[in-house]
Amino acid sequence: MSHIFTGNHVARPTINLGGTTSNSSSNQPSDIIKRAIQQREERDALRRKNAAAHRIQIFYKSRQDAAHTRNKLRAQFDQLVAAPIVDPPTLILATRLIALFFVDANSADLKRAGAWCRAVIGTVPGAAGAFTFAALSGVRTES
After folding, report:
1. What is d(CA 100, CA 82) in angstroms, rounded to the nearest whole number?
2. What is the pTM of this model?
3. pLDDT given at position 119
């Protein structure tokens, strides 16, 4: 009823029976858009975080695999150089192996390099275990 027929000049307020108030800011279109943008940013941040974690995991696993492979190569090298007489093809393989796994900070690798040097010197004809710079450089010393 209108106030014209009742004599009441003040309009009655409308009552929303839906359970929410009409002046609530959660139903405003701008707030819905802000909420959607915030949720999108949260999903994007989570996606970036997961991608970064995945990259770290891949890097860590690759380093573990590389260390495992180097240890296998070291074991193979140790078997090759442990032989009393090392033939040239075996020495070439040992040279390739030490080039792949050698790390100068590893003291065991330094010992392996020494074993490789002894193997190389042992394969030089005429070298009786005595190593001189002249023999390495190809300079002949006359006795």
Report:
1. 19
2. 0.56
3. 84
